[in-house]
Amino acid sequence: MNATDHILVVDDDAEIRRLLHDYLARNGYRVSTARDGQEMRRVLRGGALDLVVLDIMLPGEDGLELCRQLRADGEIPIVMLTARDDATDRVVGLELGADDYLAKPFQPRELLARIKSVLRRTRALPPNLRRAPIPAGLRFAGWRLDTGARELTAPDGVLVPLSSGEYRLLVTFLEHPQAVLSRDQLLDLTRGRDAAPFDRSIDVQVSRLRQKLRDDAREPALIRTVRSEGYVLACEVASA
Question: Where are the domains of the chain?
Fold first, then answer.
C-alpha cells in the first residue's frame, strides 16, 4: 500500500459509509465517501483516486451504470458490493470492468484484503495490459463481437453462443491483439480473485474458445500457443 492511496466508498447507507471510512482510515488509507452517482462524480473532479468501492443498489443510477461510466473514463480499479450473493450481479459487474466483488453482509477486514489484492494485482500488470474502455463492437478475422449484447457472429453470419468465461477470455484477447499473454496474466485479467495459483483451467477455456471460433486445435490460426510463454491472438482487431 502506498501512503497516499485514496479510496472512494460509494454507498447510500450512511452507517456503512461511516464504518468503512473509519476502518479504512485506521488502516492507513485516505478515504472519501459518496451516497450516489452525483456525489461520486463530485469527488472524482476533486482529485485522483486509487480505487472505488461501489455498491450496486444505489438510488438513481445504480452501481452497474456507474461502473460502466468509470470504466469508459479510465482504468481506476473497482470493487463492487452486492446486496446478495447473486451470480448475475457478479457476472455483469465483472464484464462491465469491475476488478472484484464482495457480497453483503461482509467483514471490513475482508474488504480490506480485497482492496489490497486488487491494488497489488492492477499495479503488477504492465501498462499495455491494463484495462481500457471496450468498444461496443469489435471485428477480427471476419468475426464480430457485440460487447453490449455479448453476441459473437461468425463470418457466415451465424450467432455463436459463449459462456461467461469464454466471453471474458475472448474480450481479453481482443483488447490485447498480437500480444503474448501468459497464463497468469490471462487468469488475472479474466478471473481476478477467483484465480488459484498454478490454475491450469485457462488451457481448457482456450481450447473451448478455439472450438467456438472454429480454430483448428492442431494448427490454430487465431489463438496460437507460444511455447513456455502463453497464448497470442494472431490477427488484427478493429472497432465495428
Answer: 6-129, 137-239
